[in-house]
Design a protein that fits this description.
Elements lengths: L1 E2 L2 E7 L8 H20 L3 H18 L5 E6 L3 E4 L2 E4 L3 E7 L6 E6 L6 E5 L5 H8 L4 E2 L6 H8 L1
Parallel strand pairs: 6-9
Antiparallel strand pairs: 1-2, 2-3, 3-4, 4-5, 6-7, 7-8
Helix pairs in contact: 1-2
């Protein structure tokens, strides 16, 4: 929806992929096997990290996405109540390769260089036109991490 100087819409916070019970069992077994292997090589800290990370991922994979409000204004891009000001963004890309539909914000600073904003049913052309007033568009090529998260 375009209201004055603001583009607003709602979208699912992430693409939900339903997993079978077997997937959860196999993933859980892989976590335990990897942590046992780390323990056998006297790497206890790595075993703990594998367990915490693996079971955290399992709990997130079971969660269904919520609808989140997204808006783009002259101040920046806002998801839920978090504002990403244009001063902290160096470029943007629009990724519409199936199954993804998202805006990729390239950050100037910080550990996380890419922020993904769901497009929902909003028009990519309209968003591109609006963001082009404030940021440069760059081509986006999905990384290995993107491929792994889509597969899992």
């Amino acid at each position: 929806m375009h209201t004055g100087d603001v583009l607003e819409w709602e979208a699912l916070e992430f693409d939900y992929k339903e997993h079978s019970t077997d997937w959860y069992w196999i993933f859980g077994a892989a976590i335990i096997a990897a942590s046992l292997l780390a323990t056998l090589t006297n790497n206890i800290m790595f075993a703990i990290i594998i367990l915490i990370g693996g079971f955290s991922y399992l709990s997130l994979a079971a969660r269904e996405p919520e609808e989140v409000p997204v808006s783009i204004s002259s101040r920046g891009v806002s998801v839920r109540k978090q504002l990403f000001p244009y001063e902290n963004i160096i470029a943007f890309a629009i990724d519409t390769e199936p199954p993804r539909r998202r805006i990729v914000l390239v950050s100037a600073t910080g550990i996380v260089r890419h922020t993904y904003v769901p497009l929902g049913d909003e028009s990519p052309a309209l968003i591109r036109e609006y963001l082009s007033e404030y940021l440069n568009e760059v081509p986006y090529h999905p990384s290995f991490t993107d491929w792994v998260t889509e597969y899992l």
